[in-house]
Every structure is written in structure tokens, then in C-alpha cells.
Amino acid sequence: MRILVTTDTVGGVWCYAETLVRSLADGGEECLLASIGQPDPEEAAALPASVRLEAMDHPLEWHPGTTDEDIQSTTDWLRDLAGRWGADIVHLNQFAYAAETFDAPTLVVAHSDVFSWFREVRDTEPGPEWARYREWVRAGLSGADAIVAPTCYQSGMLARHYGRAADRVIHNGSPLPPAAERRRASGRPFVLAAGRAWDEAKGIAVLEEALERLGDRAPSAHLAGSLEGPAGERFVPRRLNAHGQVGRQAMDRLYDNAAIYVANSLYEPFGLSPLEAAGHGCALVLSDIGSFAELWHDAAVFVPPGAPAALAGALTDLLDDPARLDGLAAAARSRARERYTVERMVEGYRALYGTLAEGRGGSEGEGRRTA
User: What is the pTM of this model?
Assistant: First the structure.
């Protein structure tokens, strides 16, 4: 089977798509990765030789200033790629491009969306300048043969804002290091956070405030991720040791030396970084939002989102209780290995690809089925 998978180079979509096509190719599928934006040369070079990569600089559907002409240009590029290559399945990790018919069945994966971001982060609707974006998303959801969400939470967000829930929920998966390489969490010296610090949805500023509240009692805390956004957004760290965007090996070293991973997001459809951290044996301190509660209940400490005092208290309590810290780290790692593996993710997509290729459609009960 020939599968065209789209990606972009902002946030976790590249990591998700790279992991997926690598595993599909290892299983004998032919994969073409179509990148909207030029990927990092090191990341591109790390792709298996069996995976074909095509890249084109186009603005993403959620970029301010994107036009109908931009969407049409990207759609035409993808349709041409899929047609010339003979794709059997077109797996889109963006919404708008599914509005037009491809020669092959199409599925859309809803990694995140602007209207959910505004509602969850700012408790408001986006302004009128986002009306066209909403139309693009609705058209893409309507045109796709199947819709996938990484959590039931995000499927519910789709239904709320665009009128269509996901047909299937397929959890993301992440490669996990061998258990023998895991160190004891209580012996690790620092707290870690990762993600787009410039994106207020990530709640990095709340972690900064929590550290300031702790003063001299604050643990060493590190941040991996971009500090500047595509529209001029900028985060300036005060207490966090900022590493910027780091490569895979450097990120693994940070995970391996962290006692606690903090994800204080206000909106997170899934969250690959907490999963990666759990796989490396970090204890998780997470904001109490729908997706994290769905994925990590009974395997993490939850704090109210946007509450620096509660976060400071949770960090202090864990660092003062090594036995509990180790227990939470073990629970998170066990959850990651049982439910959120690459193998389970790929199995879910293979099953859906087969259904689509056979022409039976993707609906499995309004986002309630998980794979």
C-alpha cells in the first residue's frame, strides 16, 4: 500500500508523522512524507531511506494572513503528488486540504485547532478574522472520508466548534527507551518542561511564577523548546534554564536526568512530550485538563491550570517524598508502555487504512472507538 502522509514543521506534528512513516515503512508500506514547510536538515536526514520526502514552503491554514489562494496552492500540490505517485491513501494532518476530492481515500487527523485553542486558553471565541479558517476546517471535515482524533477530548472539541466529531480515536504513540536504561527518579536533580514557550497555551509562564514563589527552595528547572513564534511572539525566561529547540539525543538526555516533567498546558489535544517523559521514567505533574485526565488518570499529579501556587506546592511535595516520586514515575512509565506505544498507534492506522481502501468508510461511532 502507498500512503502519502502530510506534516508541517511546527510543534509535534513532525515527530508524530516521522514516527508513523518510519514504522509503516518498517512494516513494508511505501510512504511519501509531504512537508508543508522546509524541515530541519538533521531531521530530514534521519528519515529512513525507504521514505520519500517532498517539501514545499506554503503557509499553514492557521497562520495569520493565509488566503484562499494559499490553501488552493497547497491542495493542488498535494493532489499532484498523490496522483503522480499513485497514493492508495492520503493521510492529512491538516484540515483544509481535504475539502477537495483526491483520487485516493483521505483521512484527516485533528491534532489541534484554533477555535478550541481560543475557548480553552482565553475562554472566548476568536475574532472575525478567523471566520474563513472555520469555513476551511468545516469543509475539510466534510470532505474527508474519515476523521481521527488523538483523544476523546479533542473529538469533543471538533463536535463543539465544527459540528463533526472524530470517527475514530487513535492515541499517539512514542518510541520508549529500554527499561534497563531508566534511572531512579529520586536520584535525578531537576524539573523539566518542553514545548513552544511562546504559545500561552503551554502555560510555561505559570511554571516560571511557581519557581519564583519557591525562591531558594526552587529546584533546578529546564526548558526545551522554541522561545519565538511565527508571528513575532516571544517568551523571555527568568528562572528556567532555556535550551531552545534541541535535537533528539539532547532531548533524551534531558528526560533521562529529570525527576519531574511538568506540563501545565491550558489546551493540549494529546501531548507527546509528557508521553516521552513518562517513557524515560519521569514523574508527571500535569494541569487538570480534559486530555491529560483522560490519558494519565491515576498515573500523575494534577494541578489546576493557571495556578502557580498549586504547582509550587505539588513540586515541593514530590521532591520531599522520594518514595512517592518513584511510585509516580513507575506508574507513568507503565501507562506509557501499556497504552501509548508506536505499535498500537500504527495498528490503529493500518486498520483504518484497510477499511478506507476497501471502500467501507471510516465511521465507527462518533469518536468513541479507540485504537
Answer: 0.91
